[in-house]
User: What shape does this take?
Amino acid sequence: MSNPVLNSDTVIRGSEDNRTLQQLAQEVLDVQNACNLSGVIHAWSRSISRLRKLLPNADGDDINRHPINIWWTSKCESLTGPGTSESYTLLCSLSETEAVTP
Assistant: This one.
């Protein structure tokens, strides 16, 4: 089975991304079965860049709340779990911990 994010239907040549809005929508549908968070994040970043080019008059909120981005967000949350007050407290503790060098 081919990687849906990098399949032959995705048209990205060098730095030129020619994907249509329909292809971006299909990509995020295809990625809903993915299990590699890093790969999902990198593909999402490329998708956001292309979405901005396809919708040049859209403001930040329009892009952030576009169904394509909502479903990328959903996939990331399904891989990581939702942010909780417990994880936020741990994050704050981690940010205050100084690095210890061996």
In short: The radius of gyration is 17 Å.
